[in-house]
Design brief:
The protein has a domain at 4-84: RNA-binding S4 domain (Structural Genomics Hypothetical 15.5 Kd Protein In mrcA-pckA Intergenic Region, Chain A). The protein is 33% helix and 18% strand. The chain has helices spanning 6-12, 19-27, 76-79, 86-99, 112-122; strands at residues 4-5, 31-33, 36-37, 43-44, 49-54, 57-63, 80-82. The strands form 2 sheets. A 5-stranded antiparallel beta sheet has the order 3-2-5-6-7. The protein has a two-stranded antiparallel ribbon with strand order 1-4. Helix 1 crosses helix 2 (19-27).
């Protein structure tokens, strides 16, 4: 049965851009196989389920082929199957929505005027008018 190092497979399956980054992710405890954290030299085989933590979500991939040579993007579905749960993708969407207000691509950093209008938009209107002095009963 074919086996491959986890760091080489993560790079070959195009989950990480370089093998160094894949090995570093293993070292930092972001890669686990069937719930157990692994080192970069761990061998994987077809059928293993790999969890990859890329904050804010955890991706899950099922190994279909153990390879160590990088393949074209069109061949990736033959190498692995993405079994990430839909609730993880909901987390990703929530983090995109909650973090900032979308700006048009290529417009650069917000100007002071843009920042003020964004703060005005995100700050509740009634916040300044609220009277917190509740024990004043004259």
């Amino acid at each position: 049965m074919a086996e491959a190092r986890i760091d080489k497979w993560l790079w070959a399956a195009r989950i990480f851009k370089t093998r160094t980054i894949a090995a570093e992710a293993c070292k930092k405890g972001r890669i686990s196989i069937n719930g157990a954290y692994v080192k970069a030299a761990r061998m994987i085989k077809p059928g293993d389920v790999i969890q990859v933590k890329k904050p804010p979500i955890t991706y899950s991939f099922k190994v279909l082929q153990a390879i160590e040579k990088r393949v074209g993007a069109k061949l990736v579905p033959e190498i692995m199957e993405n079994v990430t749960t839909p609730d993880q993708y909901e987390l990703l969407e929530m983090s995109k929505v909650g973090g900032f207000i979308d700006r048009a691509r290529g417009t650069g950093r917000p100007t002071k005027k843009d920042r003020r209008s964004m703060e005005e938009f995100t700050t509740p209107e009634f916040f300044g008018e609220f009277d917190f002095d509740l024990d004043d009963e004259d």
